From TrEMBL:
Catalytic activity, EC: 3.1.2.2
Pfam families: 4HBT (PF03061)
Bilayer-spanning residue ranges: none
Domain Thioesterase: 132-201
Single GO molecular function: hydrolase activity
Domain of life assignment: Bacteria
InterPro entries noted in UniProt: HotDog_dom_sf (IPR029069), THEM4/THEM5_acyl-CoA_thioest (IPR052365), Thioestr_dom (IPR006683)
PANTHER family assigned: ACYL-COENZYME A THIOESTERASE THEM4
Catalytic reactions on record: octanoyl-CoA + H2O = octanoate + CoA + H(+); decanoyl-CoA + H2O = decanoate + CoA + H(+); (5Z,8Z,11Z,14Z)-eicosatetraenoyl-CoA + H2O = (5Z,8Z,11Z,14Z)-eicosatetraenoate + CoA + H(+); tetradecanoyl-CoA + H2O = tetradecanoate + CoA + H(+)
The UniProt record lists the keyword Hydrolase: yes
Protein name according to UniProt: Acyl-coenzyme A thioesterase THEM4
GO biological process terms held by the UniProt record: fatty acid metabolic process
Amino acid sequence: MSTDQQTGHATEAGAPFDGRAAIEALMVAPGPPALGSAYQAMTEELRGFLDVLAGAAIDTEHAARLRAQLAQMTSRLRGLEVGEPQRLWGHWTDRPGRGQALIPSYDVPKGSLEASATVTFGRFHVGENMAVHGGAISMLFDDLLGWLLARSDLPPSRTAFLTTNFRAVTPVGVELTVHARITHVEGRKRFLAAELRHGDTVCADAEGLWVELRPGQP
């Protein structure tokens, strides 16, 4: 067995990274519960830092001080880097936020064919005028729909396309409701849809296609 030096993916005799195995592995926590709690608390603190930074008008002195502090932390973490299968970031799939700060945190949905969750976007995801950036909304849809598929009895799949329609301004800092559902399955194709609401207002909706991965396919 060797390791891809760019991705950190383990390979067997030069074989490509197995995407199905990687997605199936996400259903198992990457560490004990105590570590999961500590990692979740850390990433929530990071999420709060990014929101505050996005809304702060700092001066030159603050910028220089933060850069130095971040550089120190980066240096300490470099010695702890691991390959993709061993990383913790985003792999706590049984916890809100999954231990990452890219996608806004939402409770892990319980449905198998459809599910709803609440979500609040912070200022880290703002576009302009306190409205959520459209790309952040699409990321949320992609993440939630992919998670719904992962919880179903269907084999692992990857996004083929995702179309997002922006119906109204999505506000920052307020609780929103997102609903996702698997609409139908045709062979290896899985068709899904989602909707993001602020009260009775539809802020955005989406429809997408996921395609089942073949064994050994990255």
